[in-house]
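U., I forgot to send this yesterday:
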Amino acid sequence: MSETADMIWASYVNGRWLHEGETISLADPGDTGRIARQYYLASAGNVDEAVRAAAAVFPEWAETPPASRAAYVYDLIDLWRGRVDEIAKVVTQEMGKPFGEARSEAVRAIDEMRFWAGQALRLGDRTFESARRHTEAYTIRQPIGPVAAISPWNFPILSPIRKLIPGLICGCPVVLKPALQAPGASVILFRLLEEVGLPAGVANLLIGSGRDVGDRLVRDPRIAGITFTGSTDIGIRLGTLAAERNARTQLEMGGKNAAVVAGYADIEHAAKEIANAAFGVSGQRCTAISRVIVPEAERAELEAALVARVEALRVGYGLDEATDMGPLASNEQVEKVRHYVGLAERGEGRVLTGGHDINGDGYYYAPTVITDVAPGSALATEEVFGPLLVVIPVADREQAIQVNNEVRYGLASAVFTDDMNFAHAFTRSSQAGMVHVNHGTSSEGHLPFGGWKQSGQGAFGIGDTSAEFYTALKAVYRMHSS
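Result:
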Protein backbone atom coordinates (compact mmCIF):
# COMPACT_ATOMS: atom_id res chain seq x y z
CA MET A 1 0.00 0.00 0.00
CA SER A 2 1.40 3.39 -0.97
CA GLU A 3 1.80 6.17 1.55
CA THR A 4 -0.69 9.02 1.39
CA ALA A 5 -0.42 12.47 2.96
CA ASP A 6 -3.22 11.93 5.49
CA MET A 7 -1.70 8.77 6.96
CA ILE A 8 0.66 8.37 9.88
CA TRP A 9 3.94 8.19 7.99
CA ALA A 10 5.91 4.97 8.15
CA SER A 11 9.01 2.95 7.37
CA TYR A 12 9.43 1.22 4.00
CA VAL A 13 10.90 -2.29 3.95
CA ASN A 14 11.18 -4.78 1.10
CA GLY A 15 8.72 -2.88 -1.04
CA ARG A 16 5.98 -2.26 1.55
CA TRP A 17 5.00 0.50 3.98
CA LEU A 18 4.92 -0.60 7.62
CA HIS A 19 1.72 0.91 9.09
CA GLU A 20 2.04 -0.86 12.42
CA GLY A 21 3.42 -0.58 15.93
CA GLU A 22 4.22 2.28 18.27
CA THR A 23 3.82 5.87 17.05
CA ILE A 24 5.53 9.17 17.78
CA SER A 25 4.38 12.77 17.26
CA LEU A 26 6.87 15.45 16.19
CA ALA A 27 6.25 19.05 17.25
CA ASP A 28 7.01 21.93 14.89
CA PRO A 29 10.11 23.63 16.43
CA GLY A 30 8.86 27.00 15.19
CA ASP A 31 5.42 26.49 16.74
CA THR A 32 5.70 23.85 19.42
CA GLY A 33 1.97 23.79 20.06
CA ARG A 34 1.46 22.27 16.61
CA ILE A 35 2.17 18.66 15.69
CA ALA A 36 4.15 18.63 12.47
CA ARG A 37 3.70 14.94 11.75
CA GLN A 38 3.16 11.48 13.23
CA TYR A 39 5.23 8.37 12.49
CA TYR A 40 5.17 4.67 13.14
CA LEU A 41 8.41 3.54 14.76
CA ALA A 42 10.35 0.59 13.36
CA SER A 43 10.62 -2.46 15.59
CA ALA A 44 13.54 -4.83 16.06
CA GLY A 45 11.74 -7.22 13.73
CA ASN A 46 11.47 -4.50 11.08
CA VAL A 47 15.23 -3.92 11.29
CA ASP A 48 15.89 -7.62 10.75
CA GLU A 49 13.45 -7.71 7.84
CA ALA A 50 15.12 -4.72 6.17
CA VAL A 51 18.61 -6.19 6.47
CA ARG A 52 17.42 -9.60 5.31
CA ALA A 53 15.78 -8.03 2.26
CA ALA A 54 18.90 -6.02 1.40
CA ALA A 55 21.12 -9.08 1.74
CA ALA A 56 18.81 -11.20 -0.41
CA VAL A 57 18.68 -8.70 -3.27
CA PHE A 58 22.39 -7.84 -3.21
CA PRO A 59 23.64 -10.46 -5.72
CA GLU A 60 21.09 -9.40 -8.34
CA TRP A 61 21.54 -5.67 -7.76
CA ALA A 62 25.33 -5.98 -7.89
CA GLU A 63 25.04 -7.64 -11.32
CA THR A 64 22.55 -5.08 -12.63
CA PRO A 65 24.40 -2.97 -15.23
CA PRO A 66 25.38 0.42 -13.77
CA ALA A 67 23.55 2.21 -16.59
CA SER A 68 20.35 0.42 -15.56
CA ARG A 69 20.88 1.45 -11.94
CA ALA A 70 21.37 5.03 -13.11
CA ALA A 71 18.12 4.92 -15.06
CA TYR A 72 16.17 4.66 -11.81
CA VAL A 73 17.97 7.78 -10.53
CA TYR A 74 17.20 9.77 -13.68
CA ASP A 75 13.53 8.78 -13.35
CA LEU A 76 13.67 9.82 -9.68
CA ILE A 77 15.04 13.23 -10.66
CA ASP A 78 12.16 13.77 -13.08
CA LEU A 79 9.64 13.16 -10.29
CA TRP A 80 11.64 15.08 -7.69
CA ARG A 81 11.52 18.32 -9.70
CA GLY A 82 7.77 18.54 -9.21
CA ARG A 83 7.96 17.92 -5.45
CA VAL A 84 10.64 20.43 -4.41
CA ASP A 85 8.30 22.85 -2.62
CA GLU A 86 6.48 20.02 -0.83
CA ILE A 87 9.74 18.51 0.39
CA ALA A 88 11.03 21.90 1.55
CA LYS A 89 7.85 22.66 3.50
CA VAL A 90 8.04 19.32 5.31
CA VAL A 91 11.62 20.08 6.34
CA THR A 92 10.73 23.55 7.61
CA GLN A 93 7.90 22.14 9.69
CA GLU A 94 10.00 19.32 11.16
CA MET A 95 13.36 20.95 11.90
CA GLY A 96 12.73 24.68 11.53
CA LYS A 97 15.07 25.93 8.82
CA PRO A 98 13.63 28.75 6.70
CA PHE A 99 11.73 27.62 3.63
CA GLY A 100 14.27 29.29 1.31
CA GLU A 101 17.12 27.30 2.86
CA ALA A 102 15.11 24.08 2.71
CA ARG A 103 14.14 24.69 -0.90
CA SER A 104 17.77 25.38 -1.87
CA GLU A 105 18.68 22.07 -0.25
CA ALA A 106 16.01 20.25 -2.26
CA VAL A 107 17.17 21.88 -5.51
CA ARG A 108 20.80 21.06 -4.83
CA ALA A 109 19.79 17.44 -4.31
CA ILE A 110 18.92 17.33 -8.02
CA ASP A 111 22.45 18.37 -8.99
CA GLU A 112 24.01 15.79 -6.69
CA MET A 113 21.73 13.01 -7.98
CA ARG A 114 22.64 13.95 -11.56
CA PHE A 115 26.33 13.85 -10.67
CA TRP A 116 26.07 10.35 -9.24
CA ALA A 117 23.87 9.04 -12.03
CA GLY A 118 26.63 10.18 -14.39
CA GLN A 119 29.22 8.36 -12.29
CA ALA A 120 27.56 5.02 -13.10
CA LEU A 121 29.67 4.62 -16.26
CA ARG A 122 32.84 5.92 -14.59
CA LEU A 123 33.20 3.25 -11.93
CA GLY A 124 36.02 1.43 -13.70
CA ASP A 125 39.44 1.64 -12.14
CA ARG A 126 42.99 1.45 -13.58
CA THR A 127 45.20 -0.64 -15.85
CA PHE A 128 48.90 -1.20 -15.20
CA GLU A 129 51.91 -2.37 -17.18
CA SER A 130 52.93 -5.74 -15.82
CA ALA A 131 56.56 -6.66 -15.13
CA ARG A 132 55.88 -10.05 -16.74
CA ARG A 133 55.50 -10.96 -20.40
CA HIS A 134 52.03 -11.74 -21.77
CA THR A 135 50.36 -10.44 -18.62
CA GLU A 136 47.62 -7.90 -18.21
CA ALA A 137 47.28 -6.19 -14.84
CA TYR A 138 44.39 -4.04 -13.75
CA THR A 139 42.18 -3.19 -10.83
CA ILE A 140 38.40 -3.24 -10.58
CA ARG A 141 35.93 -2.00 -7.98
CA GLN A 142 33.04 -4.16 -6.83
CA PRO A 143 30.17 -3.34 -4.43
CA ILE A 144 30.82 -4.31 -0.82
CA GLY A 145 27.28 -5.46 0.00
CA PRO A 146 24.33 -4.12 2.00
CA VAL A 147 25.05 -0.75 3.60
CA ALA A 148 23.49 0.98 6.60
CA ALA A 149 23.13 4.74 6.15
CA ILE A 150 22.51 6.88 9.24
CA SER A 151 21.76 10.52 8.45
CA PRO A 152 21.36 13.66 10.62
CA TRP A 153 18.47 16.06 11.19
CA ASN A 154 20.17 19.29 10.11
CA PHE A 155 20.27 18.42 6.39
CA PRO A 156 17.35 16.00 6.13
CA ILE A 157 17.21 16.19 2.33
CA LEU A 158 20.82 16.20 1.17
CA SER A 159 22.31 13.81 3.72
CA PRO A 160 20.03 10.86 2.84
CA ILE A 161 20.53 11.58 -0.87
CA ARG A 162 24.32 11.65 -0.43
CA LYS A 163 24.24 8.20 1.15
CA LEU A 164 21.47 6.42 -0.69
CA ILE A 165 22.17 7.43 -4.30
CA PRO A 166 25.94 6.63 -4.39
CA GLY A 167 25.19 3.31 -2.72
CA LEU A 168 22.59 2.38 -5.31
CA ILE A 169 24.79 3.49 -8.22
CA CYS A 170 27.73 1.47 -6.87
CA GLY A 171 25.58 -1.67 -6.56
CA CYS A 172 24.95 -1.71 -2.81
CA PRO A 173 21.44 -2.15 -1.38
CA VAL A 174 20.90 0.47 1.33
CA VAL A 175 19.06 0.51 4.64
CA LEU A 176 18.53 4.17 5.55
CA LYS A 177 17.86 5.40 9.07
CA PRO A 178 17.18 9.14 8.97
CA ALA A 179 17.29 11.20 12.15
CA LEU A 180 14.09 10.75 14.10
CA GLN A 181 13.71 14.53 14.49
CA ALA A 182 13.13 15.07 10.75
CA PRO A 183 12.43 11.94 8.68
CA GLY A 184 9.74 13.43 6.41
CA ALA A 185 11.95 14.20 3.43
CA SER A 186 13.17 10.60 3.45
CA VAL A 187 9.60 9.31 3.40
CA ILE A 188 8.86 11.41 0.31
CA LEU A 189 12.11 10.17 -1.26
CA PHE A 190 11.01 6.57 -0.78
CA ARG A 191 7.54 7.28 -2.15
CA LEU A 192 9.25 8.46 -5.33
CA LEU A 193 11.57 5.44 -5.42
CA GLU A 194 8.49 3.23 -5.18
CA GLU A 195 6.91 5.18 -8.02
CA VAL A 196 9.91 4.71 -10.34
CA GLY A 197 9.76 0.95 -9.71
CA LEU A 198 13.00 0.38 -7.80
CA PRO A 199 13.13 -3.37 -7.01
CA ALA A 200 11.96 -4.39 -3.55
CA GLY A 201 14.74 -4.63 -0.97
CA VAL A 202 17.23 -2.45 -2.84
CA ALA A 203 16.34 0.59 -0.72
CA ASN A 204 14.78 0.30 2.74
CA LEU A 205 13.74 3.02 5.19
CA LEU A 206 13.64 2.61 8.96
CA ILE A 207 12.21 5.35 11.19
CA GLY A 208 13.39 5.10 14.78
CA SER A 209 15.96 6.14 17.33
CA GLY A 210 19.68 5.58 17.10
CA ARG A 211 19.68 3.20 20.05
CA ASP A 212 16.76 1.11 18.81
CA VAL A 213 17.56 1.06 15.08
CA GLY A 214 21.03 2.49 14.43
CA ASP A 215 22.89 0.26 16.87
CA ARG A 216 21.14 -2.87 15.56
CA LEU A 217 22.17 -2.00 12.03
CA VAL A 218 25.78 -1.39 13.02
CA ARG A 219 26.00 -4.69 14.89
CA ASP A 220 24.34 -6.81 12.18
CA PRO A 221 26.97 -9.01 10.46
CA ARG A 222 25.03 -8.86 7.18
CA ILE A 223 25.71 -5.12 6.93
CA ALA A 224 28.99 -4.67 5.07
CA GLY A 225 29.46 -0.98 5.77
CA ILE A 226 28.09 1.90 7.80
CA THR A 227 27.96 5.47 6.54
CA PHE A 228 27.16 7.96 9.30
CA THR A 229 26.83 11.73 9.57
CA GLY A 230 26.37 13.28 13.00
CA SER A 231 28.18 14.21 16.18
CA THR A 232 31.73 13.13 16.88
CA ASP A 233 30.85 11.35 20.11
CA ILE A 234 28.16 9.21 18.48
CA GLY A 235 30.31 8.63 15.39
CA ILE A 236 33.21 7.34 17.45
CA ARG A 237 30.87 5.06 19.42
CA LEU A 238 29.39 3.61 16.22
CA GLY A 239 32.85 3.29 14.69
CA THR A 240 33.96 1.32 17.74
CA LEU A 241 30.98 -1.03 17.42
CA ALA A 242 31.70 -1.52 13.73
CA ALA A 243 35.39 -2.18 14.40
CA GLU A 244 34.48 -5.09 16.65
CA ARG A 245 33.46 -7.01 13.51
CA ASN A 246 35.75 -5.17 11.07
CA ALA A 247 32.88 -3.55 9.18
CA ARG A 248 33.76 -0.68 6.88
CA THR A 249 32.82 2.83 8.04
CA GLN A 250 32.45 6.28 6.55
CA LEU A 251 32.07 8.80 9.38
CA GLU A 252 31.32 12.49 8.84
CA MET A 253 31.34 14.12 12.26
CA GLY A 254 31.49 17.41 14.12
CA GLY A 255 33.47 20.59 13.66
CA LYS A 256 34.68 23.74 15.41
CA ASN A 257 35.52 25.65 12.28
CA ALA A 258 37.50 28.86 12.30
CA ALA A 259 37.79 31.84 10.01
CA VAL A 260 41.12 33.64 10.27
CA VAL A 261 40.98 37.28 9.17
CA ALA A 262 44.37 38.95 8.71
CA GLY A 263 45.46 41.66 6.28
CA TYR A 264 42.16 41.76 4.41
CA ALA A 265 40.88 45.08 3.07
CA ASP A 266 37.26 44.18 2.30
CA ILE A 267 36.04 43.72 5.86
CA GLU A 268 32.40 44.01 4.81
CA HIS A 269 32.82 41.03 2.48
CA ALA A 270 34.52 39.02 5.22
CA ALA A 271 31.74 39.85 7.68
CA LYS A 272 29.06 38.85 5.18
CA GLU A 273 30.69 35.51 4.37
CA ILE A 274 31.35 34.72 8.03
CA ALA A 275 27.85 35.66 9.17
CA ASN A 276 26.25 33.56 6.42
CA ALA A 277 28.42 30.58 7.35
CA ALA A 278 27.88 31.05 11.08
CA PHE A 279 24.11 31.56 11.19
CA GLY A 280 22.78 29.59 8.24
CA VAL A 281 20.58 26.72 9.51
CA SER A 282 20.69 28.64 12.83
CA GLY A 283 24.33 27.61 13.20
CA GLN A 284 23.33 23.95 13.21
CA ARG A 285 25.83 22.83 10.58
CA CYS A 286 28.97 20.79 11.04
CA THR A 287 30.66 23.23 8.63
CA ALA A 288 29.40 26.38 10.37
CA ILE A 289 32.03 28.97 11.19
CA SER A 290 31.93 29.19 14.96
CA ARG A 291 35.29 30.90 15.63
CA VAL A 292 36.80 34.07 14.24
CA ILE A 293 40.53 34.39 14.85
CA VAL A 294 41.90 37.88 14.25
CA PRO A 295 45.04 39.83 15.22
CA GLU A 296 44.30 42.26 18.03
CA ALA A 297 45.20 45.27 15.88
CA GLU A 298 42.59 44.34 13.26
CA ARG A 299 39.64 43.18 15.31
CA ALA A 300 37.70 46.39 16.08
CA GLU A 301 36.59 47.02 12.51
CA LEU A 302 35.75 43.35 11.96
CA GLU A 303 33.71 43.11 15.16
CA ALA A 304 31.70 46.19 14.21
CA ALA A 305 30.96 44.76 10.77
CA LEU A 306 29.96 41.38 12.22
CA VAL A 307 27.62 42.94 14.77
CA ALA A 308 25.93 45.01 12.06
CA ARG A 309 25.41 41.92 9.91
CA VAL A 310 24.10 39.81 12.76
CA GLU A 311 21.73 42.43 14.13
CA ALA A 312 20.17 42.77 10.67
CA LEU A 313 19.14 39.09 10.66
CA ARG A 314 15.40 38.59 11.04
CA VAL A 315 14.57 35.65 13.29
CA GLY A 316 11.18 34.02 12.85
CA TYR A 317 9.05 31.12 11.68
CA GLY A 318 10.55 29.27 8.73
CA LEU A 319 7.52 29.62 6.45
CA ASP A 320 7.49 33.41 6.88
CA GLU A 321 9.12 34.90 3.77
CA ALA A 322 10.75 37.66 5.86
CA THR A 323 12.68 35.16 8.00
CA ASP A 324 16.47 34.99 7.69
CA MET A 325 17.08 32.60 10.59
CA GLY A 326 14.59 30.10 11.94
CA PRO A 327 14.26 28.39 15.31
CA LEU A 328 16.65 25.81 16.63
CA ALA A 329 15.60 22.22 16.10
CA SER A 330 14.90 21.39 19.75
CA ASN A 331 14.91 22.68 23.29
CA GLU A 332 18.07 20.62 23.84
CA GLN A 333 19.86 22.77 21.26
CA VAL A 334 18.62 25.96 22.95
CA GLU A 335 19.85 24.75 26.32
CA LYS A 336 23.27 24.05 24.87
CA VAL A 337 23.55 27.60 23.50
CA ARG A 338 22.41 29.01 26.84
CA HIS A 339 25.15 27.04 28.58
CA TYR A 340 27.93 28.54 26.46
CA VAL A 341 26.51 32.06 26.68
CA GLY A 342 26.53 31.53 30.44
CA LEU A 343 30.28 30.92 30.32
CA ALA A 344 30.72 34.36 28.76
CA GLU A 345 28.46 35.96 31.34
CA ARG A 346 30.63 34.41 34.04
CA GLY A 347 33.76 36.06 32.67
CA GLU A 348 35.01 33.80 29.86
CA GLY A 349 33.99 36.28 27.16
CA ARG A 350 31.97 39.42 26.44
CA VAL A 351 28.66 39.38 24.58
CA LEU A 352 28.67 41.87 21.70
CA THR A 353 25.15 41.10 20.50
CA GLY A 354 22.44 38.53 21.19
CA GLY A 355 22.88 36.21 24.14
CA HIS A 356 19.19 35.78 24.93
CA ASP A 357 16.05 33.85 24.06
CA ILE A 358 13.53 35.36 21.67
CA ASN A 359 9.93 35.21 22.85
CA GLY A 360 7.73 33.08 20.67
CA ASP A 361 6.01 29.75 20.37
CA GLY A 362 9.14 27.87 19.34
CA TYR A 363 12.83 27.30 20.04
CA TYR A 364 14.03 30.78 19.13
CA TYR A 365 17.38 32.19 20.22
CA ALA A 366 19.03 35.42 19.13
CA PRO A 367 22.09 35.14 16.88
CA THR A 368 24.99 35.80 19.22
CA VAL A 369 28.55 37.12 18.94
CA ILE A 370 30.95 36.82 21.89
CA THR A 371 34.40 38.41 21.97
CA ASP A 372 37.46 38.36 24.27
CA VAL A 373 37.45 34.57 24.15
CA ALA A 374 40.73 33.00 25.20
CA PRO A 375 42.48 30.34 23.10
CA GLY A 376 42.04 26.91 24.62
CA SER A 377 38.86 27.78 26.52
CA ALA A 378 35.61 25.85 26.21
CA LEU A 379 34.09 28.61 24.10
CA ALA A 380 37.08 28.41 21.77
CA THR A 381 37.30 24.63 21.42
CA GLU A 382 33.93 22.93 22.02
CA GLU A 383 31.26 22.48 19.34
CA VAL A 384 28.05 24.39 20.15
CA PHE A 385 25.87 23.64 17.10
CA GLY A 386 23.81 26.78 17.42
CA PRO A 387 23.75 30.49 16.50
CA LEU A 388 26.85 31.44 18.48
CA LEU A 389 30.04 32.94 17.03
CA VAL A 390 33.11 33.69 19.14
CA VAL A 391 35.94 36.11 18.40
CA ILE A 392 39.41 35.07 19.55
CA PRO A 393 42.00 37.90 19.48
CA VAL A 394 45.60 36.80 18.83
CA ALA A 395 48.97 38.50 18.67
CA ASP A 396 49.86 37.72 15.06
CA ARG A 397 49.32 35.44 12.06
CA GLU A 398 51.56 32.71 13.42
CA GLN A 399 49.44 32.45 16.55
CA ALA A 400 46.31 32.55 14.39
CA ILE A 401 47.37 29.33 12.63
CA GLN A 402 48.25 27.75 15.96
CA VAL A 403 44.85 28.59 17.47
CA ASN A 404 43.07 27.39 14.33
CA ASN A 405 44.60 23.95 14.87
CA GLU A 406 44.20 23.66 18.64
CA VAL A 407 40.80 21.92 18.55
CA ARG A 408 40.14 18.18 18.31
CA TYR A 409 38.13 18.77 15.13
CA GLY A 410 39.36 19.22 11.57
CA LEU A 411 36.42 19.61 9.23
CA ALA A 412 36.60 23.07 7.62
CA SER A 413 38.50 26.32 7.93
CA ALA A 414 38.64 29.67 6.16
CA VAL A 415 41.12 32.51 5.77
CA PHE A 416 40.39 36.05 4.63
CA THR A 417 43.52 37.82 3.48
CA ASP A 418 44.95 39.83 0.59
CA ASP A 419 48.37 38.27 1.20
CA MET A 420 48.53 35.20 -1.01
CA ASN A 421 51.71 34.05 0.68
CA PHE A 422 49.80 33.89 3.96
CA ALA A 423 46.85 32.26 2.19
CA HIS A 424 49.20 29.57 0.90
CA ALA A 425 50.80 29.09 4.32
CA PHE A 426 47.37 28.78 5.97
CA THR A 427 46.11 26.35 3.33
CA ARG A 428 49.12 24.12 3.87
CA SER A 429 49.07 24.38 7.68
CA SER A 430 45.36 24.14 8.47
CA GLN A 431 44.49 20.75 9.92
CA ALA A 432 41.16 20.41 8.14
CA GLY A 433 39.70 18.43 5.28
CA MET A 434 38.36 21.56 3.59
CA VAL A 435 40.03 25.01 3.39
CA HIS A 436 38.42 28.15 1.96
CA VAL A 437 40.20 31.33 0.91
CA ASN A 438 38.17 34.56 1.04
CA HIS A 439 34.78 32.90 1.25
CA GLY A 440 32.68 30.96 3.75
CA THR A 441 32.70 27.26 4.42
CA SER A 442 30.09 26.08 1.91
CA SER A 443 30.85 22.98 -0.15
CA GLU A 444 30.02 21.99 -3.73
CA GLY A 445 28.29 18.77 -4.65
CA HIS A 446 31.01 17.30 -6.85
CA LEU A 447 34.02 17.90 -4.57
CA PRO A 448 35.21 15.49 -1.89
CA PHE A 449 33.92 16.35 1.59
CA GLY A 450 35.34 15.02 4.83
CA GLY A 451 37.30 15.80 7.94
CA TRP A 452 40.59 15.27 9.65
CA LYS A 453 41.21 14.37 13.28
CA GLN A 454 37.91 13.74 15.09
CA SER A 455 35.79 15.23 12.33
CA GLY A 456 35.96 12.24 10.04
CA GLN A 457 37.09 8.72 9.31
CA GLY A 458 37.01 6.70 6.14
CA ALA A 459 36.42 7.76 2.55
CA PHE A 460 35.46 11.38 1.90
CA GLY A 461 31.86 11.79 0.78
CA ILE A 462 29.76 13.91 -1.62
CA GLY A 463 32.17 13.73 -4.59
CA ASP A 464 33.41 10.65 -6.41
CA THR A 465 35.51 9.63 -3.40
CA SER A 466 32.35 8.06 -1.93
CA ALA A 467 32.92 5.15 -4.31
CA GLU A 468 35.92 4.22 -2.15
CA PHE A 469 33.49 3.41 0.64
CA TYR A 470 30.79 1.59 -1.35
CA THR A 471 33.20 -0.52 -3.39
CA ALA A 472 36.09 -2.87 -2.66
CA LEU A 473 39.28 -2.75 -4.72
CA LYS A 474 40.43 -5.93 -6.46
CA ALA A 475 43.72 -6.38 -8.33
CA VAL A 476 43.62 -8.74 -11.32
CA TYR A 477 46.58 -10.44 -13.05
CA ARG A 478 45.73 -12.24 -16.29
CA MET A 479 48.40 -14.18 -18.17
CA HIS A 480 47.81 -15.31 -21.74
CA SER A 481 49.86 -17.27 -24.25
CA SER A 482 51.93 -15.29 -26.77
